[in-house]
Design a protein that fits this description.
By secondary structure, this protein is an all-alpha fold. It contains nine helices and no strands. Helices cover 73% and strands 0% of the residues.
Length: 169
């Protein structure tokens, strides 16, 4: 999920679309397919027309099929953020986090987007909770912390946290 290549993306999309054809209400498959469609938009992988709209419709189906599926809510929140529907995004992000409080990656990414949507205090609180959940977390968890320091003209704090990002390549 975190190291997907463009070739794997195309293969996964085909596999998930076939799985949905066989089981149209399988929430986990719908959620992952929505994520794959979102990657067409966000990463430019194997893009077909209207990837954000397809991700939105598929994530909605995932949530309708299983209202307690945190990944469905997570992908729906991502799509809502990039559609700039920040009110719906915030509500959906909070629901995704509440459904699985132990999912550090989902918590961190949604915390980042909450911060970037203007909810800086809430977003940073969530990101810091994700750091506590996973003490061996990836460096990208520090992006909003570094940016927040920079926004406040605390350049030393910004640099200190930017160096923790440590993402070679």
């Amino acid at each position: 999920f975190e190291r997907i290549t463009e070739e794997e993306h195309a293969e996964l999309r085909d596999i998930l679309e076939a799985a949905i054809a066989d089981s149209p209400d399988h929430s986990e498959c719908l959620a992952m397919l929505a994520s794959i469609y979102f990657d067409e938009y966000a990463q430019g992988y194997n893009s077909r027309p209207n990837p954000l709209e397809r991700a939105y419709a598929t994530a909605q189906r995932a949530v309708e099929a299983a209202p307690t599926n945190n990944i469905g809510h997570y992908v729906l929140a991502l799509v809502l953020f990039f559609k700039k529907d920040f009110l719906a995004f915030r509500l959906t992000a909070e629901r995704a986090i509440a459904l699985n409080r132990m999912d550090a990656s989902t918590t961190a990414y949604l915390g980042i987007l909450l911060a970037y949507s203007g909810e800086w205090d809430r977003g940073l609180t969530i990101v810091r909770r994700a750091i506590e959940l996973n003490p061996h977390h990836p460096g990208w968890y520090y992006f909003p912390i570094a940016y927040s320091h920079y926004r406040q003209r605390d350049y030393r704090g910004a640099l200190e946290n930017a160096l923790k990002i440590n993402m070679p390549g």
